[in-house]
Specification:
45% strand, 86 residues, two-stranded antiparallel sheet, alpha+beta
C-alpha cells in the first residue's frame, strides 16, 4: 500500500486499474469486457483479475471462450496478464 503526505496527513493512494477479458481467436478475438477497479495496490487488482479469469473459464459462463485476462494501469500500460496458454 502506498501512502503519501497530503496536507500534513498520511493518506492511502488509490489507483485505478482496468481489467480486460480477451476472447479467443475462435470466438472472434478482441476485448469482451472491461472492469474498472479502484484499489490501493496492484496486488489487489491482480487478485481480482485472477477471480475474473477463473469465473470466465467456468463451463456455465455465458461469455464467449476467453483466452486471457489482463490488467492495465491508469496510463494504459499492461501490468499483469494471465492466459490459457500459461
Amino acid at each position: 500500500m502506498m501512502e503519501t503526505l497530503f496536507g500534513g496527513v498520511l493518506t492511502n493512494v488509490i489507483e485505478v486499474y482496468r481489467i480486460e477479458t480477451i476472447a479467443s481467436e475462435e470466438a472472434g478475438g478482441g476485448v469482451i469486457r472491461r472492469i474498472m477497479v479502484r484499489t490501493e495496490s496492484l496486488e489487489k487488482a491482480k487478485e481480482r483479475a485472477l477471480k475474473v479469469f477463473s469465473l470466465a473459464r467456468r463451463p456455465q459462463s455465458r461469455d464467449p471462450q476467453i483466452e486471457a485476462v489482463r490488467v492495465l494501469n491508469g496510463a494504459g500500460y499492461e501490468v499483469f496478464s494471465i492466459s490459457t496458454r500459461e
